[in-house]
Each structure stands twice: as C-alpha cells, then as structure tokens.
C-alpha cells in the first residue's frame, strides 16, 4: 500500500494549475458570448446549435439536497463535468472516464475545481461499493450525480457531459492544441494505432490529444498524472477557442458542441452566468486534489481516498457553496440546548 503525498508535485505545478479555467462549461460560454456579441446570422446559427445541448434530468431542476432551486445569477452553484466514453452496444452505456466537480461563488467570483479519480472506491446508491466511474455504466448521468452527491455531501446543481468524438472534433476544429509533455512515452488508440509523445512542447490533433489525455499505465502518478494532462489539454483548448481565428469557425464549433455536449443548464442560464462572472479570471480558480492509497481487492485496483483529506475537501466545497447539510443543522440545534 503506497501513500499518495502530492504536496511537492502540486507546488511545482501551482502556476500552471491556476490557469485551469472553466473546463467544458467555458467552451459553451464562449459560444454564448459570441451569440450575444452581434455576429449576425452566424451568431444566430450558433445559438440554435447550442440549444441542442440541453437535456433535463429526471429529478428536475433542483437537487434533492436543496430546499430551493438555485440560480446562477445570484446563488453559489455546482457543476458536475463528465468526459464520457461511448460504446457501440446499445446495452452498454459506457464509462465516465473523467469526473470533475466545479463550484462557483458569485460573491467573490471564485471557482473551485476538484478531480475525482475514476477508480475511487465509493458507495454507488443501490449498487454497493465500486469504482466511481462504474456509476455511469449502471445508471447514466443520473446515477453519477447521486453517487457524487453521496460521496461529497454537496448538491450537484448542473451537469455537463462531452463524449470522446466531440472532444476530438472540437480540437481538430480549432487547429489542434499544444501541450508540455512531461516525459517520453507512447500509447495506442482503440484501433491499436501507436502514438509517440516526446518530453517538451508538442502540438496534438484531436486523435493524438485523446490518446495523450487517456494514458495512465505508463504514468508514474497514475490517475493524478492523467488528470494533469487532461487539464493541460483543456487549458490549451480554451486558449485556442478564445483566439480571433477561432471566431471564424464558430458555426462548426457550435455544431460540434451541440452534437456532442449535454447539459441541464439552459442557454438563458448560461447567459446569466456570463454576465455575472464577466470579470472571472484564472486567478479566481483553485484546484483541489484528493490524496489516498492504492489497494487491490481480488486482483482489481481501487483508489482509496484518505478520510481526513476527503473530509477537508467536503467542508471546503460546502463552505464555498454556502451549503449546510441537514444533519449538521440538527447537530448545531442540539448543541445549543
């Protein structure tokens, strides 16, 4: 059993991590900004394409942990970000290969972003203990939301999913992304094609970026290293998306987002988000990481999060959301007598 002490590595990458912005949600926001920017017919088409991203969840607009619905223009809120691997079988819903939770606070216009390693051992409602990424296979985004709410004890107000085809196509549309490869390695795609990566700056197309983002077994940091590379790509993608050249491709990009991204955030809510967070910058973002241990049960690998660190993360996210769990309220009332 190995201890995961990531403090020094996190400190060495502190500056780069602070550049991690609004992940997939930012991509959607960019197009919404262009839509209200007065780009005439092109903006109208982009707005229409983005309308396809909306997909309501069964529970409705309000988390079961909320007494009232929150509004992005006034309230702290959370977003579950999922990178989804689709499978060809109609009976296999795939896996949530990337799981992140972002919390936003309108008062100080700050964001906290936490990555949950996909092999984290958690309790999946009505399915027992298993890896957290299996929750998508068991019950789709609905069950992932329930699982994350149960694990972090915070409400999940919105979700955003993007599938791998969309990931690749969006990167190709912006002309590729440039990353800082941490060490030499090669890996394969689903067709067994080999892709080589050399330490240092390297420009990647969509297929290369997907292979780069997904590699794990050759990384000495495992899931932590992979999460780092995924966020490298997202940062580079956002830089590209904000460049003037990309504005000329807004229709094609909006079509890709509309075809491959799902969210329960309506366009009007996205517009309210942009207006409220118009001064948001990378300095307003804080990255949070779990620590824990590697363990094997019956030959299967699991990541076991450290209980003390997990409790710290939960309290930090609850405070950022200004959310007090019901059981905490009861405890406070009892202690006052």
From TrEMBL:
List residues of the Cell envelope-related transcriptional attenuator domain. 95-242
Which residue windows are transmembrane per the record? Answer: 23-44
Q: Which InterPro entries match?
A: LytR/CpsA/Psr_CW_biosynth (IPR050922), LytR_CpsA_psr (IPR004474)
Its GO biological process annotations read: cell wall organization
Tell me the keywords, alphabetical order: Membrane, Signal-anchor, Transmembrane, Transmembrane helix
Q: Which family does it belong to?
A: Belongs to the LytR/CpsA/Psr (LCP) family.
Full protein name? LytR family transcriptional regulator
What's the source species for this entry? Rossellomorea vietnamensis
Starting at the broadest rank, the lineage of the source organism is: Bacteria, Bacillati, Bacillota, Bacilli, Bacillales
């Amino acid at each position: 059993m190995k201890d995961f002490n990531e403090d020094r590595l996190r400190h060495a990458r502190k500056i780069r991590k602070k550049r991690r912005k609004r992940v997939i949600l930012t991509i959607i926001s960019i197009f919404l900004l262009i839509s209200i920017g007065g780009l005439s017919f092109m903006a109208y088409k982009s707005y229409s394409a983005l309308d396809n991203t909306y997909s309501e969840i069964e529970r409705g607009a309000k988390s079961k942990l909320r007494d009232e619905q929150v509004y992005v223009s006034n309230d702290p809120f959370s977003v579950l970000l999922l990178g989804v691997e689709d499978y060809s079988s109609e009976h296999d819903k795939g896996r949530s290969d990337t799981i992140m939770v972002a919390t936003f606070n309108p008062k100080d216009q700050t964001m906290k972003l936490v990555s949950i390693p996909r092999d984290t051992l958690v309790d999946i409602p009505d399915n027992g203990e298993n890896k957290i990424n299996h929750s998508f296979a068991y019950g789709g985004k609905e069950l992932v939301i329930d699982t994350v709410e149960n694990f972090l004890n915070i409400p999940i107000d919105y979700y955003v999913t993007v599938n791998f085809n969309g990931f690749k196509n969006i990167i190709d549309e912006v002309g590729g992304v440039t990353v800082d490869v941490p060490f030499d390695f090669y890996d394969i795609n689903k067709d067994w094609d080999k892709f080589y990566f050399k330490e240092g700056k390297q420009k990647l197309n969509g297929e290369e970026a997907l292979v780069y983002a997904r590699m794990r077994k050759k990384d000495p940091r495992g899931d932590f290293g992979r999460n780092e590379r995924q966020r490298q790509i997202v940062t580079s993608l956002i830089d590209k998306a904000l460049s003037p050249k990309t504005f000329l491709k807004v229709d094609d990009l909006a079509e890709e987002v509309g075809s491959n991204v799902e969210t329960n955030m309506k366009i009007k809510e996205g517009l309210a988000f942009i207006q409220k967070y118009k001064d948001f910058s990378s300095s307003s973002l804080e990255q949070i990481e779990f620590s824990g241990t590697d363990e094997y049960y019956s030959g299967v690998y699991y990541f076991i999060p450290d209980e003390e660190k997990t409790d710290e993360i939960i309290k930090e996210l609850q405070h950022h959301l200004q959310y007090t769990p019901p059981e905490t309220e009861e405890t406070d009332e009892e202690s006052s007598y």
